[in-house]
Each structure stands twice: as structure tokens, then as C-alpha cells.
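Fig. S4 source data, part A: sequence.
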Amino acid sequence: MTQRVLVVDDDQTVSDVVCRYLSHAGYQVSHVADGDSALAAVAEQAPHLVVLDLMLPGLDGLQVCRRLRARPDGVPIVMLSALGTEQDRLVGLQLGADDYLTKPFSPRELVLRVQSVLRRAHAAPVPDQPELLRDGDLVLATGPRTATRAGADLSLTLREFDLLAHFLRHPARAFTRAELLEQVWNWSIGDQSTVTVHVRRLREKIEPDPAEPRRIVTVWGVGYRYEPGGAARG
């Protein structure tokens, strides 16, 4: 099945290039130029992924991202922006964007990022090898991709789920941000602040006190380590 990508950008030059490259890569591509049209197109077309510009007329990209993240289907989002500061990237990622590219960018790199996000978002689970990952009151089922804490459902994005599953599969092991970016995101290069933001968001969802994390702990000078039973010891 041809995967559908919705491009949301009011810059005609940029959108023409993005749509052309994605079409050549084999995707079925549609385009809208403002936030309200983006929300309507997602509801009507059910795209597999949205390429979303930050600066839009009407509803801006952050508002669109926030509303898309409130939907139950969890459509993946690759955000584009001319705003390239670290804080801008963090805001986009905190709202749930799966990836973030700063203009000007390489169209080929965008296609690779889209492929990476879609590969993880729509990878078929292996039916004969489901995993049930458990640490105290935290339970992840990798087949249906569900997560609960103390019996309550956790609302995890695609990357949050994959990152937490990776930690649970490798307890008590320290990972650098570069290692996590490669092993969870499948990126050999990329902005390591992406990992920082996702760890912060995970802590807010699984730690009793995110300001004093006991499950995902910082290993100074290295990166992060998952401590099994950390919450219970807290």
C-alpha cells in the first residue's frame, strides 16, 4: 500500500520541492498551506505522516501539532521551521513532533527522516515474539504497543514508547545520547537534544517525582541509565 504524506507549508517554493522529492520516493503526497486546512485534511485523508511547517497563517504549526497529538490515531509528525534555536526545537519536540528539521534543509535528508519515522510508526509487530516488559508497576506490551503504570494507561508517542522499551530491555546499562539516537531513532547523525527532550517527557509520565528521577537516571558525562526497581526504592 502506498503511504500517504500530507505536507503543510505556505511557502510554495519549499512545498513544491518537498512534494516532488517525496513523490519520487514513492509516497502519495498532498499539500495544504494553512493550519485549519491541515486539520481538515488529516481528518479526511488519514495520512500516514504529516510534514508540518511551524510558521503558518492562522493556526501556527505548534497549535496544529498540539491538536494532532490530542487525536487517538497518533499520526507521526516531522516539523519544519526557519527557527533553528535549541529552544525552538525543544518546544516542537515537547509538543510531540517525531522529528524536527531546520530550514534550509536537504530534501534528501527530509526523505530519509520521513522514511525512518514511518518505518518505526508502521512496522508490523512480530506475532510469535511479543514482549511484555515489566518493572514494578510499569508494564509495556510491545505487540499491541500499550503501556500502563499502576494499571493506568500511559499516553506515549511513538518515540517515547520505543525509547522506554529500549531502556527496559537494557536495564542498568548507561547509554550516551549518540547511542540512543542511533539505536532507537536509527540515525547515525542528528540533534542529540531530541534524546534529551524525550527523556524529559518520559520522566514526566513514569517517575513519581520527575524532578528527582529514580528510573531514568542521568549518568553525568555519559548520558542515561535505566534503574530497575528505582521507583520502589524512592
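Fig. S4 source data, part B ends here. The chain is about 40% helix and 20% strand.
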